[in-house]
Design brief:
By secondary structure, the protein is of the alpha+beta class. It has helices at about 10-15, 20-30, 45-60, 70-85, 90-115, 120-145, 150-165, 175-185, 230-235, 255-270, 285-290, 295-305, 315-330, 335-340, 345-360, 365-380; strands spanning about 190-195, 210-215, 220-225, 245, 250, 280. Strands 1, 2, 3, 4, 5 and 6 form a 6-stranded mixed sheet that branches. It is elongated and about 95 Å long.
């Protein structure tokens, strides 16, 4: 960089520097990237890298010709250290991204207070981005010098550990302890399964650090030690495309095979439209859906035995009567209330229920059979309609289907 003539406002920004910028950047990295959340006793530490990189940036921005060879060597050493420790390159690059975004936001705030011109801010951004590229390049060079085979072996051990925890039959405790020790993963008292569809663009950093990950069939299986708290949400974030990220229940390690199965089933139900799709879906909010949709063939068998002649009506007529019966059983109220919920005249509801009683008969008089009929109808109501997800909340038009 040649001689630089700085405007008074920009010169003041660079001379004063945002106070405590290094501490702010380090705190942001610790909060956003779990792999760097704990105390860092490595040498060079991540915070030292932040401090040296910030100092070098201000040197470059003021146009001084101080050589940066020392920083380059330190960055390469840090990259080699991170690779040897088993951290993924995605994790390292995520931390760099957080660091530079945080520092740039702080610089923009300070420039605004000093009324720095837009032209000067644009020039400072160019220097900032060039410095970021240099930092990334040197760290990646060092990372690639690390022993890639050790990283791959550790990843393979962690996949085996995940399978041993969530598959049936689960691995023996001694085998799990051995895999955990060899892969550098501490066995927690409880953990949270996560399922994500392949092709979803999401925070890849969530699958590194202390999170176990594996792909099986049509889903990524992840295992988060402990509960899926606010810090985990911040790292997983909102998928950019695709989705969803399905968060299972937090359970003791012995309950993980069932919990992972429920999580994957919840993902499947979400993709079918049975569970309303959202960027993040929590299985704890949909346990009843899982129970009612657990065995569609058994539901059909129960329907055949409990619903009698209702099952043999034409589809449109069957749907109309089944919907009226379901709402009546759910509300256990008057025909007036049922009619209000379905947007129907009470007499229409009364007529339909008479038809249902003629078709079904005795089960509606017995409490246990009535409960079974309601469960079957609720399960049927959760199935997606042909051609796309159904909307269980959509009312009928007044007077329809008599």
């Amino acid at each position: 960089m040649g001689p630089v003539v700085l405007s008074p406002g920009l010169a003041e920004v660079l001379r004063s520097r945002p106070p405590k910028l290094c501490e702010e950047v380090c705190a942001a990295v610790r909060a956003a990237v779990p792999a760097y959340a704990s105390a860092d006793r490595t040498s060079p530490s991540a915070c030292r890298i932040v401090q040296e990189a910030i100092q070098a940036f201000f040197v470059r921005a003021t146009g001084l010709s101080q050589p940066l060879d020392g920083l380059d060597g330190l960055l390469r050493l840090f990259g080699e250290q991170e690779g040897g420790a088993g951290r993924s390159l995605d994790t390292v690059q995520a931390a760099i991204g957080v660091a530079f975004r945080t520092s740039w936001r702080r610089l923009v705030e300070v420039c605004a207070r000093h009324q720095v011109t837009g032209q000067d801010v644009a020039w400072l951004a160019e220097v900032h981005f060039a410095h970021r590229d240099r930092v990334i390049t040197q760290i990646v060079k060092g990372y690639l010098r690390s022993d890639g085979r050790a990283v791959q072996e550790r990843a393979a051990l962690r996949r085996r550990l995940l399978r041993g925890l969530v598959d049936r039959p689960p691995a023996a405790p001694a085998a799990l302890a051995d895999l955990a020790a060899r892969s550098g993963w501490s066995l927690p008292a409880e953990a949270t399964p996560v399922a994500v569809r392949p092709g979803t663009r999401w925070s890849r950093d969530a699958a590194h650090g202390d999170v176990l990950a594996d792909q099986e069939g049509d889903a990524y299986r992840l295992l988060v030690p402990g509960p899926f708290d606010a810090a985990r949400h911040a790292v997983f974030g909102t998928p950019v495309t695709g989705g969803p990220v399905v968060i299972g229940p937090t359970v003791p390690l012995g309950g993980l095979p069932d919990a992972m199965r429920w999580t994957r089933e919840a993902l499947a139900l979400t993709l079918k439209g049975v569970i309303a799709e959202a960027p993040v879906v929590h299985v704890d909010d949909h346990l009843l859906d899982l129970w009612l949709c657990a065995d569609p063939h058994l539901t059909d068998l129960l329907a055949e035995r409990l619903l009698g002649g209702l099952e043999h009506l034409p589809e449109d007529k069957r749907t109309v009567l089944a919907t009226t019966l379901r709402v009546w059983l759910e509300t256990w109220s008057t025909v007036t209330d049922v009619g209000a919920r379905l947007h129907l005249h009470p007499q229409t509801v009364r007529y339909r229920l008479q038809q249902v009683r003629q078709l079904i008969g005795d089960p509606l008089e017995d409490p246990e059979a009535r409960f079974a009929v309601e469960a079957v109808l609720r399960a049927r109501n959760r199935r997606p309609a042909p051609g796309g997800p159904r909307d269980p909340a959509r009312p009928e038009q007044p007077g329809s289907g008599r």
